[in-house]
Structures are given as C-alpha cells and as structure tokens.
Specification:
Layout (H helix, E strand, L loop, with lengths): L2 E3 L2 H13 L4 E6 L5 H13 L2 E6 L9 H6 L4 H10 L4 E3 L3 H4 L18 H4 L3 H16 L3 E5 L3 H13 L5 E5 L19 H23 L5 H15 L3 E9 L15 E9 L2 E8 L5
Parallel strand pairs: 1-4, 2-3, 2-5, 3-4, 5-6
Antiparallel strand pairs: 7-8, 8-9
Helix pairs in contact: 7-8, 9-10
The chain binds adenosine monophosphate.
The site of adenosine monophosphate has 17 residues, from helix 2 and strand 5.
Length: about 290
C-alpha cells in the first residue's frame, strides 16, 4: 500500500499501526525535486527497515534568504509519481501551517559548529535544520533515518543531536551520488544553465586533485594548495568560492598540517549563476 499524507494525525496513526505489528520504520527526509541521490537513500532505507517513509517539505526555517527559499525548485506531483515506482510505503508532505502552526518561543542553540563552513554565511541555517529534524523525528519516531554525506555538516550535527538528546533513532550516512562528470547531484542543479553545468564538473576535479596531491606528499603546504585551487576555480567562471577547507571528520576541526592517521574531508562551497553549490570528499586511504 502506498500512502500520501499531509496531516500529522494521519501519518501518526499509520505509524502506530505499523509499530504495533513490530515493523522497523525508516525515514528519508527531503525537500523534494528528487533525484538519484535521494533514491540511493531510499534504496538503503529499504535494506535496513520494513517500512520506508519519505518526507517532502521545503523548510522555510533553514533558509536565511527569502529569495533562496522562493526560488527553491518544487515538483511535488513529479516526486510523488517517481516515489510510487520506488516502492516506498508512505510520503509525508505537510504544508507550512501543519509544521509551524504558530511562532516558536523555543529555539535550538548550536555551539561553534554553526559558525563554520555553511554556517558562516547562512546564519541560523542549522538551527532551522535541527528544528525540522526534531519535529520530523517526534512525529514519525523512526528507528532509522538516512542522510547524504554531501551535506556533511548537517549529517554531523544530526548525529550529535541524537547522541546529546538521547533520541532513539539510528543515523545512517550515504556517500554522495554524482553525475558522470563528477558533479554532485543536487536539486539546485536544476537552476543552472548548460554552460554552468559544464563548469561545475571542475568542483569534483579540484577535490580529487587536492586529495591526490596531499596523499602523494603529506608535507605539502595546504594553505598554498587551497589558495591556488580557489584561484583556478574563479578563473574558470565561478562567481565566488565561499570556502575551500580541509577538516577532521570527527570534530570538524580545521586541518593546518596533514596527519595521515586522521580522517579528513575537503569541503567546498562555490557560487555560480547565483546558485550556491556544496560538495566534499574524503582524503584518507581508507576510502
Ligand atoms: P535535500 O532534499 O537536498 O534536503 O536532501 C535530502 C537528503 O538527500 C539529504 O540527506 C541530502 O544530504 C541527501 N542528498 C542530496 N543530494 C545527494 C547526493 N547527490 N547524494 C547522496 N545524498 C544526497
């Protein structure tokens, strides 16, 4: 049976019925305009659970610019049609009033981690992300929830959220699904021209190049390497590189000097045609 619900009471009652008969429930939270990256999360969810719920909700609280929120692609009918083919058990697609019926007087407070990487220029973004995750987890009470590692900072914070708040949901991270060119799939790619799409394949090229250079020479000057890489991307036509940094996966501390025993990732955010793209790539030999 395929169920589509907009109301919390409807999805709650479906979940209760399935919990009673011992089904393991998984949740894949999305903002819609679904692509193969989302479908990979759904495939993994099916492997780990008996009942897969996909939520589709463009969460206004995580957009710090109204224009970005308004321009975010929305394709609910097409998403529903595709999810029908994917064998998910239910879609939860509430509207704004259902999720945010009145102004909150309680908010989330994150220490430091919301001021680095994507948090630096998206003030309040991760507060909004954690707010919607707490709401979705309270409504759906999933045994498992799956997230893409493309949004690594988000994944990191959600893992901390469940640890620190003793939330009984297992968080699974899924590596980034890419176009053949290496471009990370993203709903935001829909806003790019063909010319920009061609240029964006250089994001993955640069991430792979940095990784290779560091592995080949552990003593390389990281600051210099990142600076010339940023310059190269600007010359190719990116408007701005918001960040290009290497950080420790475990705590998101900045890497100044490479240590082969630490799991690092290279993180990037770049703007092209006013669209903000993000990506990251692990460095170590263990991948
Ligand atoms: P979004 O709809 O952009 O909020 O994404 C919903 C979920 O899909 C998040 O956990 C994302 O990290 C994940 N996701 C988005 N793009 C990809 C991708 N290219 N590969 C894997 N997961 C992804």
């Amino acid at each position: 049976m395929f169920n589509i619900f907009q109301r919390i009471d409807q999805i709650s009652s479906l979940i209760n019925q399935n919990k009673i008969i011992g089904k393991k429930i998984s949740l894949v939270p999305t903002m819609g305009s679904l692509h193969e990256g989302h479908f990979k999360l759904i495939e993994e969810a099916k492997l780990h659970s008996d009942f897969v719920i996909v939520s589709i909700f463009v969460n206004k609280k995580q957009f710090n610019q109204k224009e970005d929120y308004n321009k975010y692609p929305r394709n609910l009918d097409k998403d529903i049609a595709m999810l029908k083919q994917k064998g998910v058990n239910a879609i939860f697609c509430p509207d704004d009033v259902e999720i945010y019926p009145k102004d909150n007087i309680i908010s989330i407070n994150i220490k430091d981690v919301d001021r680095i990487l994507c948090g630096k220029d998206r003030i309040g973004h991760f507060n909004g992300v954690l707010l919607i995750i707490i709401k979705l987890f309270s409504i759906i009470r999933p045994d498992i929830a799956l997230f893409g590692l493309k949004d690594f900072q988000q994944f990191f914070l959600i893992k901390r959220l469940v640890q620190e708040f003793n939330i009984n949901t297992k968080i699974i991270g899924i590596e980034t699904i890419r176009e053949k060119s290496g471009l990370a799939l993203s709903s935001r790619n829909l806003r790019l021209s063909n010319n920009a799409i061609e240029i964006t394949s250089n994001i993955f090229y640069i991430l792979s190049d940095i990784r290779k250079k560091i592995i080949n020479n552990n003593k390389i000057n990281i600051d210099h390497l990142l600076n010339i890489s940023k310059k190269y991307l600007i010359e190719l036509g990116f408007q701005k590189i918001l960040y290009l940094e290497i950080r420790d996966e475990e705590n998101l501390n900045l890497c100044i000097k490479y240590n082969p025993n630490v799991k690092y990732r290279i993180f990037i955010s770049a703007i092209i045609e006013d669209v903000r793209l993000i990506d990251n790539y692990p460095i170590g030999e263990w991948y």
